[in-house]
């Protein structure tokens, strides 16, 4: 699960979000009609699916919408400050989750991102045109205004402030490097959907009275934020964002917010690493600010730094349309994911894509070929751990939704919508197994049946390496048994290491994981520095006190590497000691690192201590 964003927001008068029909815009008045639809809901929730019909430009349009139930996490919260500076965090109940994605009937190229909270407010595109829609009254009933994309042009061109593709974190004002190694499971390339869990928007107000303009309960602000996230979730790059909350700076600014984008980004990054990350876990933080950044700049972010100390960005709240701001935020998030600005050689199906340097009236919906390629390269070179942790269904606030492709509580299977489902074992309408079926998915499910006992020896998960063991079907379950591995201490990788909890830890691989494929282990002379008891060379740490290694333990202290990338693969826990040689790494013949000491195998994995040898999963 990607515990992603802390989004810091400084919002100006546009947050009030009253439709601005000031005569400068050309729009058509329509009257959306809600159609009856099959609903799976209780009396207090929004329907999972809903249909709307309207006549636009003489053409009848019917929208089919599916609720975005993964918008929030189970620990979603909202934070603000009292007048005397006290931080208050609440967990709102009965949130109105009225945010949908969908399609237009008989239009294969259509796309819809819509809020139905008070009428229809959002974005939709047909094969020919892109539109924005919003109600003409506060309650959302009756007439709505539909704008063509080009009719909401801004007075000046807007640009992203990123000009260079690398960031030297040793620059003044940047946080210190923190290093992190990764487990074997986190670098698998088979994940089809990556999840970003967005910590949220930290809302900043320059003038406290503006807070009162939002009815004090932040209802309008919350709706705007949800609409932004709903749009970003509809941008296709196999990455999903769930919001864990937002914070409102209602008393005073927590950082110095300057029109100089770089200075503001640095200040926000330091605040995030020193304050925010210690009280709420997340992987990425963004500041949404109403301040006018210098020139035409509306956003700035570090490149390729997701999950780490520089996993931040800032966005100017430059447009009354939340979706337009969402497009800018998606752009800055793209930088965090390793993407640079599109060039003339990039292929973009829409003419303008998310990572175009200059924004225009055209609200993009797709990433270009260059962006997709850069994202894959970033995943392969940096292995950002937080992207590899898919959330469990219980970690998202959502009732079971049949047809979303995830097997949730109360469902036996879920093969997608009726139109998408090709699994003969699963009823796409009920998300129950078809008659006579025992299973619908799983390595040990064959022709809708659990493999018979006589075929239970079928290997469903082959041996991965020297420290792994193969798993076979049991004949009792459609799922492959839990992964098991050899006992700790067995030689692996041709004697280069010893097995530890299913891995074969080696300094060479640790350097590559943290610094990229060109990194190599530094000379032994560097490891001798670990006797110095300095922040860059030590064995153990007690608070802010660094404890040097004994001579025999220097290979188990700080990890030293040469070459590689300019920036390492960061960790996100400020209290954790990153950059140390991994436990279980070989430090001599018959010797391994254990609690930053080089000890013999018997001491580390003594036979009388089963937990040390097995960890509950070894054989």
TrEMBL record:
Cofactor(s) this protein requires: Zn(2+)
Gene Ontology MF, one: metal ion binding
Entries under CDD domains matching the protein: ZnMc_adamalysin_II_like
A cellular component term, taken from the record's GO annotations: plasma membrane
Cysteine pairs bridged by disulfides in the record: 346-370, 348-353, 460-480
Keywords: Disulfide bond, Hydrolase, Metal-binding, Signal, Zinc
Residue ranges of every copy of the Peptidase M12B domain listed in the record: 211-391
Protein name: Zinc metalloproteinase-disintegrin-like batroxstatin-1
Annotated gene: LOC107673423
């Amino acid at each position: 699960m990607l515990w992603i964003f802390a989004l810091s927001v400084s919002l100006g008068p546009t947050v009030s979000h009253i439709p601005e029909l000031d005569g400068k815009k050309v729009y058509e008045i329509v009257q959306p009609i809600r159609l009856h639809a099959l609903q799976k809901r209780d009396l207090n929730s929004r329907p999972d699916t809903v249909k709307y019909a309207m006549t636009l430009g003489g053409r009848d349009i019917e929208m089919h919408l599916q609720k975005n139930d993964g918008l929030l996490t189970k620990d979603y919260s909202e934070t603000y400050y009292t007048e005397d500076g006290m931080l208050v965090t609440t967990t709102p109940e009965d949130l109105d989750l009225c945010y949908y994605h969908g399609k237009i009937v008989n239009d294969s190229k259509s796309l819809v991102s819509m809020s139905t909270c008070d009428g229809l407010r959002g974005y939709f595109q047909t094969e020919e045109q892109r539109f924005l829609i919003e109600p003409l009254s506060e309650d959302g009933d009756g007439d709505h205004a539909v704008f063509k994309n080009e009719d909401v042009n801004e007075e000046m061109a807007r640009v992203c402030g990123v000009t260079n593709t690398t960031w030297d974190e040793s620059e003044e004002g940047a946080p210190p490097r923190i290093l992190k190694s990764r487990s074997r499971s986190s670098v698998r390339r088979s994940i089809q959907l990556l999840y970003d869990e967005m910590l949220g928007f930290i809302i900043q107000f320059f003038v406290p009275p503006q807070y009162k303009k939002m009815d004090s309960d932040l209802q309008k602000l919350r709706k705007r934020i949800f609409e932004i996230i709903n749009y970003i979730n509809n941008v296709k790059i196999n990455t999903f964002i769930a919001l864990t909350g937002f914070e409102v700076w209602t008393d005073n600014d927590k950082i110095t917010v300057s029109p100089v984008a770089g200075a503001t980004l640095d200040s926000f990054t330091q605040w995030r690493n020193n304050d925010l990350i210690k009280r709420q876990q997340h992987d990425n933080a963004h500041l949404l600010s109403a301040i006018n950044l210098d020139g035409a700049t509306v956003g700035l972010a570090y490149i390729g730094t997701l999950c780490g100390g520089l996993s931040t960005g800032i966005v100017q709240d430059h447009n009354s349309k939340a979706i337009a701001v969402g497009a800018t935020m998606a752009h800055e998030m793209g930088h965090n994911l390793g993407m640079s600005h599109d060039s003339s050689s990039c292929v973009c199906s829409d003419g303008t894509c998310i990572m175009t340097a200059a924004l225009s009236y055209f609200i993009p919906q797709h990433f270009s070929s260059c962006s997709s390629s850069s994202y894959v390269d970033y995943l392969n070179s940096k292995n950002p751990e937080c992207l590899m942790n898919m959330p469990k269904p219980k970690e998202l606030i959502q009732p079971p939704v049949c047809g979303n492709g995830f097997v949730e509580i109360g469902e036996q299977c879920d093969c997608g919508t009726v139109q998408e489902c090709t699994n003969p074992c699963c009823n796409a309408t009920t998300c129950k197994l078809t008659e006579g079926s025992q299973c619908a998915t799983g390595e040990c499910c064959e022709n809708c049946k659990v493999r018979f006992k006589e075929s239970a020896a079928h290997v469903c998960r082959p041996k991965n390496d020297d420290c792994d063991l193969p798993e076979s079907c049991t004949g009792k379950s459609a799922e492959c048994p839990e992964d098991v591995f050899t006992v700790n201490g067995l030689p692996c990788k041709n004697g280069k290491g010893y097995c530890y909890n299913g891995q074969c830890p080696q300094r060479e691989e640790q350097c590559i994981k943290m610094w990229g494929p060109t990194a190599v282990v530094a000379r032994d002379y560097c490891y001798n520095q670990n006797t110095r008891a300095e922040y860059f060379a030590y064995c153990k740490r007690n608070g802010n006190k660094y404890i040097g290694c004994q001579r025999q333990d220097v290979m188990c202290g700080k990890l030293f590497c040469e070459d590689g990338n300019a920036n390492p693969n960061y960790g996100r826990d400020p209290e954790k000691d990153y950059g140390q040689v991994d436990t279980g790494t070989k430090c001599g013949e018959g010797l391994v690192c254990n609690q930053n000491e080089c000890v013999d195998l018997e001491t580390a994995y003594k036979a009388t201590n089963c937990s040390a040898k097995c960890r509950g999963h070894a054989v």
